[in-house]
Write a structure and sequence with these properties.
The structure is a homodimer. The first copy, chain A, is an alpha+beta fold. Chain A has helices at residues 2-13, 37-40, 47-59, 77-86, 97-102, 108-115, 130-142; strands spanning 20-25, 28-34, 68-73, 90-95, 125-127. In chain A, helix 3 packs parallel to helix 4.
């Protein structure tokens, strides 16, 4: 955790957001990540997502079972979901989402939006052309050599 | 939407998951994305996240206000959160999350986990070293030339 915190502190000096993350397997660091949203023009480049992407490249896998993620701040819903998709086995965090809210990095609005029915969300959302789109799902089901996850 | 669907169908043939997305501004395509999770060993490479990253690179911005995302399937919580972080103005989808669940691409477990208190989640989660971590947030607040978002 100290390394994740050190990264978060260094990243502020390096023009990034105050967030760092470290992914560890069996006591060894697999990969690290810092927030490069504004530096890289990538709204998905949160510390946790960056660390997950780097760790998966390092391990040559899209799964990180058995790994722990140490993140300097409680994950936002995007990062938390990425952690679930990656199948990480343990999450440790230091700053809380309220601490992040206090410095205007709040993600409360996203947690609230996710829980709302689609019709009540602030981003207008419409559904159509389901019948046409189902073709891809039918093709997927019919494919014999697919890689499932 | 037809283009997003076409991408999702082509992507199955190309060894990816059955998902495609297109980001449009003022009737013009800014960028597209497909699911390359298994192909690229990147659990965050969903169609929507891939399209957002590409569109931000194209526009040289970490925000996509004024853009619409057309996605062949209802966004998972990771992608939905990324859409909020990117500030997209409209979401259109075709297949539903239940359709995805039916072909074993379900994200219901993630929606459920997000709503649970930390102590009840399936991935064990601990919080510690908050005091040390707050240093990065104090540095951020003290920084005069920071780029906020």
């Amino acid at each position: 955790m100290q390394q994740a915190i050190d990264l978060s502190i260094q990243n502020v000096a390096n023009g990034g957001g105050p967030f760092g993350a470290v992914i560890v397997r069996d006591g060894k660091v697999v990969a690290t990540g810092v927030n490069r949203v504004t530096a890289n023009n990538d709204p998905t480049a949160h510390a946790e997502v960056s660390a997950i992407r780097a760790a998966c490249q390092k391990e040559g896998s899209f799964k990180l079972e058995g790994c722990t993620i140490y993140t300097s701040c409680e994950p936002c819903p995007m990062c938390l979901s990425a952690i679930y998709w990656a199948g990480l086995s343990r999450i440790c965090f230091a700053n809380t989402k309220q601490d992040a809210e206090n410095i205007k990095f709040g993600d409360k609005f996203i947690y609230e939006e996710i829980e709302r029915p689609i019709s009540k969300r602030t981003i207008p959302t419409e559904a159509f052309m389901r019948e046409e789109a189902l073709q891809a799902f039918r093709d997927w089901e019919a494919k014999s050599d697919k890689v499932e996850y």
